[in-house]
Amino acid sequence: MDATSVLPATDGEGYLVDPADWNEQLAEVLARQENIELTDTHWIAIRFMREFYQEHQVIPDVRFVTRHLAAQVGGSRNLVFELFPYGYVKQACRIAGMRRPRGWSTG
Length: 107
Known about the structure:
Layout: H1 24-33, H2 40-56, H3 62-73, H4 79-83, H5 88-95
């Protein structure tokens, strides 16, 4: 997305209103807003989240993403929080184009 592109509709906290509006270019824009430079490992997590959402129509619990990352790249149990230091919901869900999960803290 370039500077003249119009971002899709978001709620008051910056989450997409319609997850179908998401694409990988938008993820790059959203990540830059969070001061995150997306690495291959970020993309493994984000693509898993998108695939899980497409299949189940719910946002994957952080435990599922943690297990997927462990199977794909190894690393610590805290890898999700190393990738998204301000939290799974606040950063990972937003960058992956999810709606804000109801009842979850922003941590």
